[in-house]
TrEMBL record:
Protein's name in the database: Sugar/inositol transporter
GO MF annotation: an example: sugar transmembrane transporter activity
Source species: Arabidopsis suecica
Record-annotated Major facilitator superfamily (MFS) profile domain positions: 29-375
Keywords: Membrane, Sugar transport, Transmembrane, Transmembrane helix, Transport
Annotated compartments: Membrane
Residues annotated as transmembrane: 25-48, 60-84, 96-118, 124-141, 177-198, 262-283, 295-317, 324-346, 352-373
Length: 375
């Protein structure tokens, strides 16, 4: 009974919560946290414009380069499996330091590679780091930001990912693949240093029973004059609720009452991965060359639309909602795949093959413009 009364008091305090200030520490902390997302984007787009140069410099076959490109995915799977457990046990800051160590080591191994072994090892290590980053960064941002700006601050994760893609797409036309690898590691160095100057997540501190530290961190993030009591109570209530549900295991998901939600969730994830956009974004330059379209122009155009289309996605998701946006983007992706199929299908047909370059460009442009709306 006493516990229920305390929870009711906490809920009453939460209802009286005032709008928190956006403090310089909050902005700086968010910048440091999302800087690793740039590396995520750089890893996604790295193979798009470096395929021919890496293959010629290290004398690789197509199969060897394909393995190199896919190793980041395998590494990402391993990193993602351990990301939640690592963040819960060691904290978000420590997990990001570990992710930075993997990414920096991986990018340096790629930049200094003299053979396929170092190249593959570097790509695999970057993948593990990216797998950790993909979970920790959005969760960390959500846990340090107040509700009224949480969506905008969390979006910065996607924005920095797109910036990473744009940079490697654009500068891949002018810089060597080794220099691009160095560029990919720079944000990790920034984060390694910056993490010393930002606080740990208040929610994680509350989970560990460090309530005093939790309140001190909240006060720093919200400003000296802000009343943190309602928010601190809300965090404690949430932590207690999560502890009560901690005995729920993965088998609970397969109960009949969750079948509909589980089917939708898994279906969306599978369709997102199987719609072909990963291959298009990773090997865009090669597709342009095969179609006879100027690869440099194509990659520069793609680099220029990455950031604007992510901003457009933020606006549209608020106006349209997620379901209409998902359906529209899925239809557009379907048309883009058909366009690419027609482009390469008629490539060697006399008289009609002339449409291949422009159809290829349109298909890649549409696909690249829409696939981030699936996330």
């Amino acid at each position: 009974m006493e516990g229920e009364k305390n929870m009711e008091k906490g809920l009453l305090l939460v209802k009286k919560e005032e709008t928190a200030n956006t403090t310089p520490l909050l902005i700086f902390s968010t910048f440091i946290i999302v800087s690793a997302s740039f590396t995520f984007g750089a890893a996604i787009g790295y193979t798009a414009d470096t395929m021919s140069s890496i293959m010629s410099d290290l004398d690789l076959s197509l199969a060897q380069f394909s393995l190199f490109g896919s190793l980041s995915t395998f590494g990402g799977m391993i990193g993602a499996i351990f990301s939640a457990k690592a963040a819960a046990a060691f904290g978000h800051k420590m997990t990001l330091w570990v992710a930075d160590l993997f990414c920096i080591t991986g990018w340096l191994a790629i930049a200094l590679a003299k053979n396929i072994i170092w190249l593959d090892m570097g790509r695999f290590l970057v993948g593990i780091g990216v797998g950790l980053i993909s979970y920790v960064v959005p969760v960390y941002i959500a846990e340090i930001t107040p509700k009224h700006v949480r969506g905008a601050f969390t979006f910065s994760n996607q924005l920095l990912q797109n910036c990473g893609v744009a940079v490697v797409y654009y500068f891949g036309n002018f810089l060597s693949w080794r220099t691009l690898a160095i560029i990919g590691s720079i944000p990790c160095w920034i984060q390694v240093i910056g993490l010393f100057f930002i606080p740990e997540s208040p929610r994680w501190l509350a989970k560990k029973g460090r309530d005093k530290e939790c309140e001190e961190v909240l006060q720093k993030l919200r400003g000296r004059r802000y009343d943190i009591v309602p928010e601190a109570c809300e965090i404690k209530i949430s932590v207690e609720a999560s502890k009560q549900n901690s005995n729920i295991n993965i088998r609970s998901l397969f109960k009949k009452r969750y079948a509909h939600q589980l089917t939708i969730g898994i279906g969306l994830m599978l369709l997102q991965q199987l719609c072909g956009t990963a291959g298009i974004s990773s090997y865009g330059s090669t597709l342009f060359k095969l179609a006879g379209f100027p690869a440099r122009i194509g990659m520069m155009v793609l680099s220029l639309i990455v950031v604007p289309k992510s901003l457009m996605g933020l606006i549209l998701v608020d106006r349209w909602g997620r379901r209409p946006l998902l359906m529209t983007s899925a239809f557009g992706l379907c048309l883009s795949c058909i366009t690419l199929a027609v482009a390469f299908g008629v490539k060697d047909v006399p008289g009609i093959g002339k449409i291949t370059p422009i159809f290829c460009f349109i298909g890649i442009l549409v696909s690249f413009s829409l696939f981030h709306f699936q996330y």
